[in-house]
Amino acid sequence: MPTSTTPTTLLSVLRPRNQDRLYDFYRDLRSVDDLYWDRRLHAWVATSHAVVSSTASDPRFSSVRYPDIEAVSEELRPLARVLSQQMLYSDAPDHARLRSLLSRAFTSRAVAGLRDRISVAVDEIFTRAAPTGRLDIVADLARPLPLAVICDLLGVPEEDRSTLSAWSDPIAAAIGSSRLGADDSRAASQSMAQMLTYLRGLLTRKDGPPAPHTLRALLATGTDNPDQDFDELLANCALLLIAGHETTTHFIGNAALALLDHPQAADQLRNRMDLLPAAVEELLRYDSPVQLMLRRARHDLELAGRSIAAGQAVLLVCGAANRDPAAFPDPDVLDFQRPSGRHVAFGYGPHFCLGAALARLEGVVVLEALLTRLPDWKLHGAPPSWQSSLNFRGLTSLDIAFTPSPEHLGSCTPAQQTASG
In which domain, by residue range, is 15 found? Predict the structure, then answer.
């Protein structure tokens, strides 16, 4: 129910002290009001699971981020035009059409076919770290692995991947910011333009047949979409590249930190590897890599007893919803045997994450390797710190130490042994 107390602005989560106590901050917001008007952001903020999940799939709300591109700053306008072609920021019927352009790359069979490549990549990372006894989970594992997987799916040569990652960073920063300066807006727009130029050249190459598992190969098999949809295809390939590695990077780092903070839970997983798929879901709920979804009211309406005016934005705080005790008893407890949940870490409704199965697979392979190959891992060096972002929740670094053991660390993971028969 509404209260007479006005909650603080959601912008307060950007303060370092609130990043360290993010879910306490969300609990305080939710205890005052689970849907309130944020005067600083000029938007409604929803923090309960019921309101977040129902609004995410409510056809009365639009997912369009920039309803009036001409109202956006000149520096940001080129980026806004591209984002407006992406399925994440589109409504029916455009959303289904755009999603269909790429859905064949994420069928269950296609994702399962990536398992061996993911396992090999993880093995290479751990083998390189073995003699040193040190690993920055963010820089050495969580960032390069998802980038390699999504670039492999797109058919990006290895020598170009660091460049694409560099282009991705300012775009992700722009997506995760509520207020962007002219220089940052310009950098994000320029990076997107460079990325699209590169992807256009990649997907239209005529210098030989594409590798069979790549998106280029899928496109070569034929599509019913007219030529004018190619710009939309490029925009959504850029979305895959940015979201496909940015969010999984954050998930791996967040999950590793949660296990370090809960050694008993880590020991439970070591003894019950059958719990790994459930553990991935619980870790996604516990510290979600994506914290916000945005919706706009299509017309004047009521939501949870409030009058929402046409065009007003509603910020759906996924991280708060995933710690709502009304949906998850004892939400601050990491419980790998929690009943199958309704977390919203992958979104909810028609915009449920297209790459969810791939992210889950990467999570299972990485957690298995961490738990079996680093039995005595512990935090090392400076305390973990968080990126400053409203939309994304991720660490800047996560340094760990372990006992070097080349014989153990250089061996195949159980997943690889199973895959190789």
Answer: 10-419
What letter would DSSP give residue 288? -
Exposed e or buried b per residue across 297-334, where buried means at least 16 C-beta atoms within 10 angstroms of its C-beta: beeeeebbebebeeebbbbbbbbbbbbbeebbeebeeb
* Residue 40 maps to a domain: yes
pLDDT tens across 365-407, in order? 999 999 999 989 999 988 899 998 899 999 999 999 999 976 5
CA atoms of 402 and 123, how far apart (whole Å) = 16
Q: What is the mean pLDDT of residues 33-43?
A: 94
pLDDT at 414 over 70: no
Nearest to 260 by CA among 363, 394, 380: 380
CATH code of the domain in which 394 resides: 1.10.630.10
One DSSP character per residue, 398-417 reads -EEE----HHHHTSPPHHHH
Tokens representing 242 are 């940015």
Q: How many domains does the chain have?
A: 1
Distance separating alpha carbons of residues 21 and 13, to the nearest angstrom: 9
Which uninterrupted H or E stretch holds 162?
A: helix 161-175
**The total number of residues written for the chain in this structure:** 421
Quick check: is 3 in a domain? Answer: no
Are residues 355 and 330 in contact, defined by beta-carbon separation less than 8 angstroms? no
What letters, b where the CB count within 10 A reaches 16 and e where it falls short, cover 201-214?
Answer: ebbeeeeeebeebb
Rounded to whole angstroms, the Cα distance separating 165 from 181 reads: 22
Using CA atoms, how far apart are residues 364 and 274, in angstroms rounded to an integer?
10
User: Among positive and negative, which fits the CA dihedral 88, 93, 99, 103?
Assistant: positive
219 Cβ partners below 8 Å, 6+ apart? 203, 233
Domain-embedded: residue 32: yes
Enter the pTM of the model. 0.91
In a domain, 351, yes or no: yes
| Range 93-98, long-range pairs (CB < 8 A, 24+ positions) | 95/63, 95/350, 95/351, 96/350, 97/225, 98/232, 98/236
pLDDT at 5 over 60: no
Q: How would DSSP label each residue in 39-57? A: TTTTEEEE-SHHHHHHHHT
Cα–Cα distance, 241 to 317 (Å, whole number): 24
